Amino acid sequence: MLRRQRRALFWCVISICYLTWLGYRLWPERRQSPPRYERDAGPRCLPANVSVAVSATVVNAAIQAVAIPWIQDDNNVLVVPEQQLDHVWVDTMVLQHFRLESLIVNTGLPDAQSMTLHAARFGLEVKKSRFVFQYLGIKCYGNFWATLNETNATAVLGLTLVPEGHWNATVSQLMVHWGVLDIHHELDSKACGIAQRIVEVFTGELDTFIAAKVKSKLDEDAPAKIAEGMNNKFASSSFRVITPPVMTEERVAVTIDANPVSFGCEVAAAAQTVPEFVPRDVAVHTSAASVNNFLLNAVQAQALQVQERLPSYMNTSLFINVVPELYHACPDCPLYTLVQLANAPVVETPERGRVSVSVENVLVGLYVEANSRKSAAALAAHLWAKSATAISFFYDDVNRSFVTQWHRGIYRDMNTFPVLALLVEARSGIRNLDTVGGRAISYEVLPVQVAMSVMASNVGRIDTDELAYAVETVWNDVGVPLVNLASPLRLPFFLRKAALDVGPMDIDSGFNVGIKDVLSFMKSVGFM
User: Fold this and answer.
1) In this structure, are 62 and 11 located in the same domain?
2) CA-to-CA distance for 250 and 244, rounded, in angstroms?
3) Residue among 153, 155, 157, 150 at smallest CA distance from 229
4) Could you tell me if residue 411 is inside a domain?
5) Domain assignment of residue 399, given as a range
6) Residue 107 is part of a domain; what is its CATH number?
7) How far is CA 361 from the centre of its chain?
8) How far apart are CA 440 and CA 132, in angstroms?
9) Number of domains in the chain
10) SS3 313
């Protein structure tokens, strides 16, 4: 018996070596160094653009909802350093608790890359601070504080495109119509009351000094602080822009690079114009080519994968009665699932209102992670014993980049092994995409076609034809009718006059916004 086992093991090793040598001889291009996945900054990506246009009405509503709370954030402060003025020493003044009742913008004024801001009923508080007055041997200590109310201002916000692919904001032409500055002070000692007239002169000087400092601080620092806050947001954005803002009195438009910064793509070439849009409050324009390029870039960036570790109680003990060898090779070892695309999905729009999607080489797998070297060795032996075809499949049927990625990703430390890994191909689509009355989207999801093949199995033989047929049957006979039953899909109540045009080349969509409905909704959910 032992002699037979040794003989079988010997011929298994010989077979593996022969298959490896044969693959090496027949596919010489595989002898090249494996492709590197630690790319240098800025890999070449295909262009994927999305253009967006927003009406001035929506811009103003967004500013009311976002900019005003940002201005009124308690973390926003301006600081005036301590000062010595003749006989008066004034401690550090902290300007805080900014208030703003309304902020309205006129887009496209004074030019296509600027907007004019109108701030109404602005206010702030000067935090209680110390002062010292000394004159003719009289030394008085005290506190002061102040409030500014009913101040109005106008300014010009300019937005330009910088080479890094984001906007740069500048605030200029600030004009302030000052409201009432109420200044309060109190003395520490009643002894200063002896020199009442002198103190009155002193407090008058102090009030004048405080008012001048508050106003100059707002004039000098507020525009820079607003621009700095906006530029920090622009620079940290997950997406780059390709155009500066293209503004008119009716709308603001921009073209965005749909490839997120996380893809590591080069900065796209700048442009100065935007395409035509459907006439709606919010409009979006893109193309099927941009969608496919985005998906291709996502695969290049290894972004189209989902890996999920299962709860601790879902371990190899699940297989104790089904595949006992797997459990005994690695008792109570953790499991995780992986879905990873080797090739980009292909989106086609063959005719108006129809979208077809096909995917190939989708790795869908359940994996076990060894918790010891002994378990890793046992799993490896069990895997190669179960998967006689794994080597030839590994080298023959999967493209080289996917093989390298799969090998480095799944077997990165030789402690992770497949329970079952399948390669899946699928094709489906949607037709009759259209809007209904501007308040809903109609559609018809088409049946799916699925094909599967086994990449590696630790659970014995899998009939992939039966498995694919089962998936098709469940989805096509149950899932598709349920999904189509929900058509037309109603849009949120504050979206109106929706438009959707999916053509062979371009994809356009848009909708109008019920501003009052949006604001009411945002207040109801606590956003405002």
Assistant:
1) no
2) 17
3) 157
4) yes
5) 304-488
6) 3.15.10
7) 27
8) 69
9) 3
10) coil
Peptide bond just before 110 cis, omega within 30 deg: yes
**CA–centroid distance for 163 within its chain:** 21
For residue 289, being part of any structural domain is answered with no
User: Rounded to whole angstroms, how far apart are CA atoms 200 and 194?
Assistant: 11
The token pair at 380 is 């490896």
CA separation (Å) from 416 to 339, 383, 395, 411, 500? 15, 11, 19, 6, 46
Statement to judge: residues 447 and 350 lie in one domain: yes
**Per-residue pLDDT tens digits for 212-267:** 888 888 888 889 988 998 999 999 999 999 999 999 999 999 999 999 999 999 99
In this predicted structure, the answer to whether residue 19 has a pLDDT above a threshold of 70 is: no
- Residue whose structure tokens are 């940290």: 236
Average pLDDT over residues 320-335: 87
Nearest C-alpha neighbor of 385 from the set 313, 444, 312, 326: 326
CB atoms within 10 A of CB 270: 14
User: What CA–CA distance (Å, rounded) separates 151 from 145?
Assistant: 18
Q: How far apart are CA 112 and CA 101, in angstroms?
A: 27
Instruction: Verify that 61 and 206 share a domain, yes or no.
Output: yes
Tell me, letter by letter, the H, E, C secondary structure of 435-449. Answer: EECCCEEEEEECCCE
Percent of the chain with pLDDT over 90: 46
CB 222 within 8 A of CB 199: no
- For residue 94 the two structure tokens come to 């902290």
The tens digit of pLDDT for each residue in 290-325 reads: 999 999 999 999 898 888 889 988 888 988 888 888
Residue 296 lies in a domain: no
**Residues 390 and 461: beta-carbon distance below 8 Å:** no
Residue 13 and residue 98 share a domain: no
Q: Which residue has the tokens 């299962």?
A: 310
88-132 tens-digit pLDDT:
888 999 999 999 999 999 999 999 999 999 999 999 999 999 988
Are 233 and 324 within one domain? Answer: no
E-strand spans in 437-520? 440-445, 449-457, 489-490, 495-502, 506-513
Tokens 């040794």 locate to: 6
- Phi, psi at residue 336, to the nearest 5°? -150, 160
| Rounded distance between C-alpha atoms, residue 218 and residue 310, angstroms | 55
| Sign for the pseudo-dihedral over CA of 32, 36, 40, 41 | positive
